[in-house]
């Protein structure tokens, strides 16, 4: 099977490429290697992929419709995993246009190419951020998500709506995956675990927002990727019981599905920091700060649909995940016993 993966040099994208290559799929990776965060880290991920048989890399911007169409025509993928996006809640307050270009225009270009080729299944990344102002816990895919609190979340909600429209009009099987706070080795430098580790090792204080009263459904990268691959293999189908008079947001009379992929186990942020301190053997200095604009206090994934329909539930405890991240970080950045880089 040939799978085209956008965002292949990204955190989740690179792991997904490796997972599919492990089972001998042919993988076409697409990425523009933008400088939202350390390009060197993206290139290092890419080097590991390019050493593997069955992997082809195409450097391209997904917001360029001509380029995307040409890539799809050349490679003619059986399935598509669309992970490329402008990520980050806080950055969306500073550079909103980047989110429209990558997350909306880019997704439209992918949908159009999938439509033209008749691809078997499109799986795309959504986010737990779409739950926005919702406070009913755990967050369920069957609840409406009409009150985003960041432009990033709004663009991802827009992706879900666009996917449904194309699924309804053209019969394209589309599955959206709402990821919950992904962490692990090779992760993004703008995420909390990465920043906290760097700052603690450097003896710098860490910024802890909402005065530490956050809860997050931290989800380990291997669990996220296992969910992606299982969903990719399943294929979205129409829900024969879908009723327009009582519409279920998670399914449709079209071949369309939405799933949460989260640990289903929210952890206090201060406990997360505590495990990191224990792993590093260093006590963190903290700056307790108010909650930032666009953020939400808690996340908690209801994964019943993922369990019932896909047969999978993430289960990596944070103690294991954080240990694996710290081991990778120290090796990658050559941190010695004295905590010097």
Order of strands side by side in the largest beta sheet?
Answer: 3-2-1-4-5-6-11
Residue share in helices?
40-55%
The H/E string reads EHEHEHEHHEHEEHEEEHEEHEHH
Shape: globular
Round the Cα radius of gyration to an integer and report it: 20 Å
What separation lies between the terminal Cα atoms? Answer: 42 Å
Q: In this structure, how is the largest beta sheet organized?
A: 7 strands, parallel
Percent of sequence in beta strands? 15-25%
How many strands in all? 13
Detail the poorly predicted runs. Answer: none
**How many separate helices?**
11
Structural class from helices and strands? alpha/beta
Descriptive terms for the model:
alpha/beta; single chain; 41% helix; 341 residues; two-stranded parallel sheet; 11 helices; 7-stranded parallel β-sheet
């Amino acid at each position: 099977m040939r799978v085209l993966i956008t965002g292949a040099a990204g955190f989740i994208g690179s792991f997904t490429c490796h997972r599919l290559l492990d089972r001998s799929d042919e993988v076409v990776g697409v990425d523009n290697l933008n400088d939202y965060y350390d390009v060197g880290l993206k290139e290092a991920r890419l080097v590991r992929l390019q050493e593997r048989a069955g992997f082809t890399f195409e450097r391209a911007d997904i917001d360029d419709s001509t380029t995307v169409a040409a890539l799809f025509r050349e490679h003619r993928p059986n399935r598509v995993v669309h992970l490329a996006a402008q990520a980050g809640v806080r950055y969306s307050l500073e550079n909103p246009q980047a989110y429209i270009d990558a997350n909306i225009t880019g997704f439209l270009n992918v949908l159009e190419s999938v439509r033209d080729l008749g691809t078997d299944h499109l799986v795309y990344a959504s986010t737990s951020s779409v739950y926005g102002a919702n406070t009913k816990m755990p967050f369920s895919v069957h609840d409406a998500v009409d009150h985003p609190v960041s432009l990033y979340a709004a663009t991802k909600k827009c992706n879900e709506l666009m996917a449904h429209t194309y699924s309804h009009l053209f019969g394209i099987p589309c599955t959206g995956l709402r990821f919950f706070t992904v962490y692990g080795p090779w992760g993004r430098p703008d995420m909390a675990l990465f920043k906290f580790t760097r700052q603690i090792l450097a003896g710098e204080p860490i910024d802890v927002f909402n005065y530490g009263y956050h809860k997050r459904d931290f989800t380990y990268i291997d669990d996220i990727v296992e969910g992606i691959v299982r969903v990719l293999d399943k294929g979205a189908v129409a829900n024969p019981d879908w009723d327009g008079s009582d519409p279920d947001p998670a399914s449709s009379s079209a071949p369309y599905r939405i799933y949460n992929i989260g640990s289903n186990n929210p952890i206090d942020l201060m406990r997360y920091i505590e495990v990191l301190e224990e792993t590093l053997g260093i006590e963190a200095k903290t700056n307790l700060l108010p909650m930032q604009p666009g953020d939400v206090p808690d996340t908690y994934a209801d994964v019943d649909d993922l369990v019932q329909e896909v047969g999978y539930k993430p289960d990596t405890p944070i103690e294991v995940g954080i240990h694996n991240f710290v081991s990778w970080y120290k090796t990658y950045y050559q941190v010695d016993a004295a905590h010097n880089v």
